[in-house]
């Protein structure tokens, strides 16, 4: 599967559709080249690994008592450091991020995740190394 976004539920966006078409084309091109015997050299790339899902602050009745801070909104994949604004209570109090390392939030304030009690997903940036890849013929 391919998920490209973000985009609001029930909305078809031409720019997002174009990105989806491009990624599917690249995937199909890779499969074709691999099947033709092309060798792909080793490579290293940065990726984001999911650490944990973070819920909104809630009261004892389970009701949300703070929203995503405006400085965090629309900042998917951007670094979030200790002390950066994270949530804003309905009374205007800033709740900062408290962590011992920089993280990269994603799926920030996605409507589809409210019912799943998820304000965002905390990820870490890591490097993966892939060995060379080549079709082995038996």
TrEMBL record:
A GO molecular function term, named singly, is:
hydrolase activity, acting on carbon-nitrogen (but not peptide) bonds, in linear amides
Any idea where the AstE/AspA barrel-sandwich hybrid domain is? Answer: 44-125
**GO cellular-component term (any):** cytosol
Pfam families linked: AstE_AspA_hybrid
Q: What superkingdom heads the lineage?
A: Eukaryota
Question: Gene3D superfamilies, per this entry?
Answer: Zn peptidases (3.40.630.10)
What is the protein name stated in its UniProt record? ACY2 Aspartoacylase
Please name the source species. Answer: Donacobius atricapilla
User: What's the encoding gene here?
Assistant: Aspa_0
